[in-house]
Amino acid sequence: MPQDNELLVVTNLEKHFPIKGSDRVVHAVDNVSLDLRQGQTLSIVGESGCGKSTLARVCIRLLEPTAGTVHFLGRNLSALDQRELRAARREMQLVFQDPYASLNPRRTVAQTVMEPLAIHGVGGSKAERRERMLKLLSTVGLKPETATRYPHEFSGGQRQRIGIARAIALEPKLVVLDEPVSALDVSIQSQILNLLVELREKLHLSYLFISHDLAVVKHISDRVAVMYLGQIMESTRADALFAKPLHPYTQALLEAIPRARVGVEKHRTRLFGDVPDPSRPPAGCRFHPRCPKAMDICSREEPGERNLGPQGGPRHYVKCHLYA
User: Fold this and answer.
1) 121: Cβ–Cβ under 8 A, 6 or more apart, which residues?
2) Rounded to an integer, what is the distance from CA 201 to the centroid of its chain?
3) pLDDT value of position 1
4) What gap in Å lies between CA 51 and CA 227, rounded to an integer?
5) Nearest to 98 by CA among 21, 165, 177
6) What are the beta bridge partners of residue 92?
7) How many other CB atoms sit within 10 Å of the CB of residue 165?
């Protein structure tokens, strides 16, 4: 059962997509369990196509799960009817990856930010909603005069600020951030990340942060879960993961982060081959065809998830035969 401070609890979650004209299915999310506590940021990281965004969308029931459960604020989302789900979605909001595609080009900033307020009946009048909208723009660092402008008049970073203002308009408890800075210039990324950290503290938000870049999540995350081919390979506190990564896949991802150290040669774990077809995942450990530390057992048996406790830090879970 979910504990009092657990906002989101995912248990044995699966999401499969049938392939048209075939009896095969894509195993986008396969037996994933995780939890997010109130006020924390949980980051899901991994290569493109590993199932991160699908997992995020199933967690807020934008996609229906194939199997497993998602409890939000102690309630099973799959058991909610449409009226109950609509009410629950007021507490769950999403910031999309592409700020150029996620805003309606025919709507002004004011219309975009005020729309969720009107849908959920927040504010007694249009004037009250407009006043709230102007406060939201100020909160995300935009001037009041931007309210009458259209998305094409803004830069990518400004558009993402508009998307964030829309997401926090209803004062949700959970905000899902799906690669929120990957489409932005590096100089703008830090500004948006700093804004997200500031809003989390000010508004008491919880984040489910999706990214392929470990360098991005390092400074925003309380906990990190590393995903590969639909499964969580390793999860623990962010400081423990960056200080002592245990899974070979996590080690390879961390070693791939560029570092400006002139004259210093560092050994890097290189991954060979391509990510396997998610409709035909390999037997045994999903990562074994590319793992530099693979053993015979890795191709035969799927490793169970193990909590290594003090060895890797508090609640350090890893799915690897090296730690059997």
Assistant:
1) none
2) 18
3) 43
4) 8
5) 177
6) 174
7) 23
The reported pLDDT for the residue numbered 261 is 60
- Phi then psi for residue 144, to 5 deg, are -60, -35
Q: For residue 14, list its beta bridge partners.
A: 67
| DSSP-assigned letter for residue 323 | G
DSSP run (H or E) holding 111: helix 109-119
305 SS3 class: strand
Residues 287, 248 contacting (CB under 8 angstroms):
yes
Compute the residue count for the chain. Answer: 324
CA dist 130 and 143 (Å) reads 14
The backbone torsions φ and ψ at residue 308, rounded to the nearest 5 degrees and listed phi first, read: -85, -5
For residue 190, give the nearest of 167, 215, 210 by alpha carbon. Answer: 215
Instruction: Output the furthest CA–CA distance in the chain (Å, rounded).
Output: 68
Which pair of tokens denotes residue 111? Answer: 């219309």
CA distance 160 to 3: 33
Tokens of 93: 């909001």
Q: Which residue has the tokens 């996590």?
A: 250
Q: Three-state DSSP class for 226? A: strand
Which residue, among 318, 282, 281, has the nearest Cα to 16 in the 3D structure?
281
Spans in the chain with pLDDT lower than 50: 1-2
Q: Give 3-state DSSP helix, strand, coil % of the chain, rounded to 5.
A: 35, 25, 40
Assessment of whether the complete model's pTM goes beyond 0.85 = yes
Q: Which is nearest to 52 in space by CA: 143, 193, 180?
A: 180
| pLDDT for the residue numbered 214 | 87
Q: In what order do the strands lie in the sheet with 41-45?
A: 92-95, 174-178, 206-211, 41-45, 223-228, 231-237, 317-319, 305-307
Interhelix angle 186-203/156-168, nearest 10 degrees: 20
